[in-house]
TrEMBL record:
InterPro entries: Methyltransf_16, SAM-dependent_MTases_sf. It holds the Pfam family Methyltransf_16. It comes from Sanghuangporus baumii. Gene3D superfamilies: Vaccinia Virus protein VP39. This is Methyltransferase. GO terms for molecular function: S-adenosylmethionine-dependent methyltransferase activity.
Length: 283
């Protein structure tokens, strides 16, 4: 029987691969995603600023950086974050990825900017450093830029927050490990964020490589919409407009209990995730 550690590693890997596949399929004209990926399929040419929470080895963030560099989006900015000790490993991963990029693209432009920032949960210093980074202090020629996207895979602690009334889009990939322990996150997340699963529909023209990469989207012959990724969940969310007027509790336990939502001191919960889970089980 797999150990808890083995199960955790498997869930983390599967959630990360689900997020990477979402970004990769967003390039293909043979696949339709709803909602479409606003990082890859943009309505305009505005640059994006992406922060990844709990980047770990940088598997997801650096894969996305390579993809955006290949697409010529080198004015974008990706910020990888994790605990201070993990950031040392992230620096090594970034160095290797840049070296690999320069080796395989000798005549190509530079790798897009990737910054690494220690950001432990609830750490005020880390938040201040992030604010300075977004304020333009990461480059002498840079200017302030809004945070447009937050991405994370298999990372459930406290719902992300923002002091600005501009809500970045949150993209979360998730693999169930212990539903009883993880439900509290989704109950609180739904109070502050409106979120929905990504759906996918494929066309009639597919390469053999796409067939290999998308085995989780079986049956391939189906023509209708399906929830993206049978091995987990992929959610897109934005901050509820009214929540910017609520007082965010300082305690993570209060936040997870739903205190502060509607400016109430009474614990509350949201059932969006439970409803989506029930619908998928009945499908």
């Amino acid at each position: 029987m797999p150990s808890k550690l083995t199960r955790t590693v498997e869930c983390t890997r599967e959630a990360a691969e689900l997020l990477i596949r979402y970004f990769q399929l967003s390039e293909s004209s043979d696949w339709q995603l709803d909602p479409p990926c606003s990082i890859i399929r943009r309505k305009d040419e505005d640059d994006v600023t992406i922060i990844e929470l709990g980047s770990g080895t940088g598997y997801v963030g650096l894969s996305l950086a390579e993809q955006l560099s290949r697409l010529g989006k080198r004015s974008d900015l990706i910020i990888l974050t994790d605990l201070p000790d993990v950031c040392v490993l992230l620096e090594e991963s970034l160095h290797h990825e840049k070296h690999r990029w320069m080796t395989s693209h000798p005549m190509c432009a530079d790798f897009l900017p990737v910054k690494i920032l220690p950001l432990p949960w609830g750490d005020v210093t880390g938040v201040d450093q992030l604010s300075d980074l977004l304020g333009g202090e990461w480059n002498a020629m840079s200017k302030p830029r809004p945070l447009t996207h937050i991405i994370c895979s298999d990372l459930l602690t406290s719902p992300p927050s923002s002091d600005s009334e501009h809500s970045p889009e949150v993209i979360i990939s998730y693999k169930i490990r212990s539903l009883s322990k993880e439900t509290a996150f989704w109950s609180a997340f739904g109070l502050w964020f409106a979120f929905s699963p990504v759906s996918v529909r494929h066309g009639t023209s597919r390469t053999s490589q796409e067939r290999f990469d998308c085995t989780a989207l079986e049956p391939l012959e189906a023509q209708g919409w399906h929830v993206f990724g049978s091995e987990g969940f992929l959610f897109l969310g934005v901050r509820r407009p009214q929540s910017f007027k609520w007082n965010v509790p300082e305690s993570d336990s209060d936040l997870l209990a739903g205190i502060g939502a509607q400016n109430s001191d009474v614990p509350q919960s949201d059932d969006t995730f439970e409803t989506l889970l029930m619908m998928q089980m009945e499908a």
